[in-house]
Request: fold
Amino acid sequence: MRAYVLIEATIGKARDVAKALKTMPGVQECYLVTGPYDVVAIVEGKDANTVGKTVAERVHNVPGIARTVTCLALGI
Reply:
């Protein structure tokens, strides 16, 4: 299961957030982006519960994150 986590960082913290996420277990990729969000992280796990746990227990605890939107990728 894969999710795209769209992250709004507090002012001046986007780079710090991205660096912290890049080394986090379960985060496969992480990018600084332009637009309404500052960082996009790709989180993977064996199922939706694993992905949700990674986001809730790890990603949300990174200092400098103001808000997130998690988008689960569904197969077609």
